Amino acid sequence: MKKYDSLSRLLHLFLAAGITTQMFVSLVMITPKPGRIPNNWYSVHETLGIVLFAILVVYWLRAVLKTIRTGDPLMLFPWFSAARLGALGKDIGATLADAVRFRLPPDGDDIRPLPAAIQGLGLLIGLFLGLTGTVLALTITPGVALSPILHDIKELHEAFGPLMWGYLAIHPTLAIIHHLAGHKTLNQMFGREV
């Protein structure tokens, strides 16, 4: 069984807890606008967002450096490799064939292209939200209208929020389904029986 190293597990835990908290805080925060003062939840969202952005940057740098060091393909990003895109296409086909038979793909030690690519998309969404949120946190002045470019950044930040909600609904749900089916998905990430 492939287990993740301690730093990967710690980063995953921080990201899972932090991003989930961020998303729920976004439901109760009041954002600043001319004539409207933000509430304390907005400050929590800003601060936690900057911390999460830093964690995501560390995660990405670590993944890229590990890929360069080991020569293993970066499964999180199959988009720029014909071979990895081909493997992803085959895995999607196999997963759909299993799904129409109401089966899960077989469990194994190898990292499968589809779950890895989905994880990569989630990380890209998080990185984009973290980047745009950090830009906004460092440039917004309460009581002052946003410049056109900052307004566009804010709109993009808000538009990507539902994508993260979708990811947060799908990723842990599938991990639990696989675990209940006897796969070792959660054991691989957390290193113990759960």
Automatic annotation (TrEMBL):
Q: Where are the transmembrane segments?
A: 12-30, 42-61, 121-144, 164-182
Name the domain of life this protein comes from: Bacteria
Keywords attached to this entry: Cell membrane, Membrane, Transmembrane, Transmembrane helix
Q: What is its main location?
A: membrane
Query: Where's it found, cell-wise?
Result: Cell membrane
From the UniProt record, which GO molecular function terms apply?
A: electron transfer activity
Asked if the keyword Membrane belongs to this entry, the reply reads yes
Signal peptide (UniProt feature, chain positions)? none
| Annotated GO biological process | respiratory electron transport chain
Which residue ranges does the record assign to the Cytochrome b561 bacterial/Ni-hydrogenase domain? 4-191
List cellular component terms (GO): plasma membrane
Q: Can the keyword Transmembrane be found in this entry's annotation?
A: yes
The membrane topology of this protein is: Multi-pass membrane protein
Q: What is this protein called?
A: Cytochrome b561
Q: Which organism is it from?
A: Magnetospirillum fulvum
